[in-house]
């Protein structure tokens, strides 16, 4: 039984290798990683792909893009209706202005549709590579349990190579998908602490997303208003990293840690600005208010 399994596995592994070659992302798709993702090119150091996280981001991204598409389609329908009414009234200047607006919205809708199709294409290719990698991994485990023969050792080497290639392709697609995530415009709305915040208190807020950092200082004024040296920062979304927020109180030369929290960015892929209120302290006595616009 073991011998027949080994022979069958050898044939299957060869078929799988051919399948992997045919379905390789680099051979099927003309994807070229931008300069920011040169580390994802073949042969470079790679990390472990995270399919579940990529799925969550993909679903949130697609939902947000469809929201934008529906909003602009509604705007186009409204402008088209006014366009017809204006044409009957023969107000030429206003008519041509509306015509220009309609063409502009139509172009933007086409860009959105292309953007959505590109994201779907990338995710479909990602899922294919994920399934191929799972199949090769399962076969590799099965071969490792079978009697050691020359054929099984060759199959193990070949399957190991296939797993590595699929892993590289998945990381490559993750980098290509990351390019399509847009931007997060984060606005500082201040601290909320009621009795914990007193006039003259000074705080430092440190926000990090992967390698992107934002450090700003603020002060509580005598009228309980707050002044901050910066009000807005643009972050490039990341597939795997969460927002890390650290707040410290400045007392002369000393600094006192108020709290550190992490915040997931999946809910930020929306057409409407998202008001974020996070508890900085464990009891929620000091909160941080942010607004995120995608």
From TrEMBL:
Transmembrane spans: none
Pfam assignment, any one: PL48
InterPro entries, A to Z: FAM65_N, RIPOR3
Sequence ranges assigned to domain FAM65 N-terminal in this UniProt record: 1-294
Stretches of the chain forming a coiled coil according to its record: none
Family: Belongs to the RIPOR family.
Entry-linked PANTHER family: PROTEIN KINASE PKN/PRK1, EFFECTOR, RIPOR FAMILY MEMBER 3
Protein name (Swiss-Prot/TrEMBL): RIPR3 protein
Organism: Notiomystis cincta
């Amino acid at each position: 039984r073991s011998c027949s399994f080994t022979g069958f596995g050898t044939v299957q592994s060869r078929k799988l290798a051919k399948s992997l070659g045919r379905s390789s992302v680099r051979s099927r798709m003309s994807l070229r990683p931008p300069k920011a993702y040169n580390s994802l090119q073949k042969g470079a150091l790679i990390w472990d792909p995270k399919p579940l996280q990529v799925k969550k981001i993909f679903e949130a991204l697609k939902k947000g893009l469809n929201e934008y598409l529906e909003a602009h389609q509604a705007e186009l329908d409204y402008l088209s209706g006014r366009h017809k009414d204006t044409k009957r009234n023969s107000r030429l200047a206003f008519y041509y202005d509306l015509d220009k607006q309609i063409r502009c919205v139509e172009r933007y809708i086409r860009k959105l549709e292309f953007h959505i199709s590109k994201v779907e294409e990338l995710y479909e290719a990602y899922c294919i590579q994920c399934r191929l990698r799972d199949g090769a991994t399962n076969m590799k485990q099965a071969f490792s349990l079978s009697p050691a023969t020359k054929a099984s050792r060759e199959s193990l080497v070949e399957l190991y190579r296939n797993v590595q290639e699929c892993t590289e392709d998945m990381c490559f697609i993750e980098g290509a998908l990351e390019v399509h995530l847009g931007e997060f415009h984060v606005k500082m709305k201040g601290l909320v602490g009621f009795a914990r915040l007193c006039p003259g208190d000074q705080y430092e807020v440190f926000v990090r997303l992967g390698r992107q950092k934002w450090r700003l200082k603020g002060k509580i004024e005598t009228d309980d208003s707050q002044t901050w040296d910066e009000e807005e920062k643009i972050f490039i979304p990341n597939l795997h990293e969460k927002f890390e927020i650290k707040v410290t109180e400045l007392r002369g030369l000393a600094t006192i840690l108020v709290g550190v929290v992490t915040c997931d960015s999946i809910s930020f892929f929306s057409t409407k600005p998202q008001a974020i209120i996070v508890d900085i302290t464990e009891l929620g006595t000091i909160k941080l208010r942010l607004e995120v616009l995608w």
